Hints:
The protein is of the alpha/beta class and 261 residues long. It has helices spanning 3-28, 37-47, 54-64, 69-89, 95-113, 140-151, 164-173, 192-202, 215-219, 223-227, 239-260; strands spanning 127-132, 155-159, 178-182, 209-213, 231-232. It contains eleven helices and five strands. It has a five-stranded parallel β-sheet. Helix 2 crosses helix 4 and helix 4 packs antiparallel against helix 5. The longest helix is centred in the first third of the chain and has 26 residues, at 3-28. The relative contact order is 0.09.
Amino acid sequence: MTASAMVRTLxxxxxxxxxxxxxxxxxxxxxxxxxxAEHVAHLVNLVLGTDDDAPAAFVAGLRAQGASEDAxxxxxxxxxxxxxxxxxxxxxxxxxxxxxxxxxxQRLLHHCAGHNLDDGSAGGAxxxxxxxxxxxxxxxxxxxxxxxxxxxxxxxxxxxxxxxxDLSGLVAEQWFDVAGFSVSSDRALxxxxxxxxxxxxHSCNRQLGVMLGGQMVRERPGIAATVGADMVSLDVTIAAxxxxxxxxxxxxRSKLNNNKR
Length: 261
């Protein structure tokens, strides 16, 4: 076969077959769906609407299109909760509507996780108290964080919107290895140092680790040192790993102090 004949065969027979096979392969793959700003806005409208089943059906549709569980949690549900918070702060919706909307988002979160995050039944060698900063009314991010702690096997107690007295009583009666605060508003920062000091004072675990997360911590990552926390975690998906690393640091510090005595 001459060179020109080979080129003609390549163009007329082989390349079309390769292209056809490539197109078929693409058609058989399930495309990955990434929730967009439009998806978030639509979900917010649904959770503020009158159809209780519509939000779950919408999320199920996105999952069927290939959206991962992490994308649903972080890019859709968490973003929708932040959007509701901004709408409330801008007085475009009232507190009752925000309450209903966040409640529906929490039901979606529980449904996606396949687990009731409030029951404190997750097994594991380490235990965590997860709370919003007292006075901080944005608690949905706390439940997102709790899902990742649950996956990592932590035993959880979740206390959204608890007071300083509530938290002090909890740590006095129950052993917690770590206390994690979600800080979403600068209004909560003024009293945060006092809240952390009260936890350390009343905790039955004298080596209680304290970590911070949330929107305000992302904006001010150096806040831990000024309020008496041990560390910050800026990525909710690995916050449990950060907490485990904190326990190792506390353990090593305790051994060092014992050796000095």
